[in-house]
Amino acid sequence: MDWHQRTGIKGAAGCIFITAIAASCVATIGAFSQSQDSELTFLLPAGRSECFFQTAPKNGTMEVEFQVVAGAGMDVDFSILSPQGFHLVSEYRRSDGVHMVEPTEEGDYQICFDNSFSRFSEKMVFFEVILDLPANDAGADDEWAGLGEPENLLEYKLEDIRESIESVHRRLERSRQMQAVLRAFEARDRNLLEDNLWKVSFWSCANLLVMVGVAFTQVYSLRRLFDDKRRVYT
């Protein structure tokens, strides 16, 4: 009878442990949804400007990173406007930049890129918006605390598991953001290399044609110098 009781207690502890782990994952996933990221690569025509709108809550954090990946000059004008229409950020003829708005106001922020100073060259622009919503973990913490922690739980602590999962998620999210930025850098470098390759090839061909022309001109001039057309009478 004692053996059956111990087995039942261990089984109940195992069920409580599994239930707590499942609740931990649900609470952690709920916390993950507090971060909203978006990224876009678009073509900005010459002499035009484009604006994008990002809805933000109150007391949040918004980070905007942009980079010009293709186009002559590799630069655009950049600005961020608040929901009330105030200019929070204004930059001119920049190829990249990172800007943080904290705390945010409730409403639609306006993110604008201006290429009106360029008459002929269009630009390809990459930008990313990282929006962190205000934390609201009181309900999750209460639910977490209500689960309790059974005794002899193989020395696992639910709080440690939750912190580990959140740490892994933050690092993975940061890695994804860095990879997106590195892809933008790689695209810009590739476009620069292709443009430089075209310029080098063009001027190399031009120099080759000039050298061939000069060589033929020199040969023709030398032959004219030694070409004696006078008649000799005997």
UniProtKB/TrEMBL annotation:
It is found in: Endoplasmic reticulum membrane; Endoplasmic reticulum-Golgi intermediate compartment membrane; Golgi apparatus, cis-Golgi network membrane. The keyword Ribosomal protein does not apply. GO terms for cellular component: endoplasmic reticulum membrane; endoplasmic reticulum-Golgi intermediate compartment membrane; Golgi apparatus. It is a single-pass type I membrane protein. The chain crosses the membrane at residues 12-32, 200-222. Pfam families: EMP24_GP25L (PF01105). Keywords: Endoplasmic reticulum, Membrane, Signal, Transmembrane, Transmembrane helix. Residues 39-227 form the GOLD domain. It comes from the Eukaryota. PANTHER family: TRANSMEMBRANE EMP24 DOMAIN-CONTAINING PROTEIN. Belongs to the EMP24/GP25L family. This is Transmembrane emp24 domain-containing protein 1b.
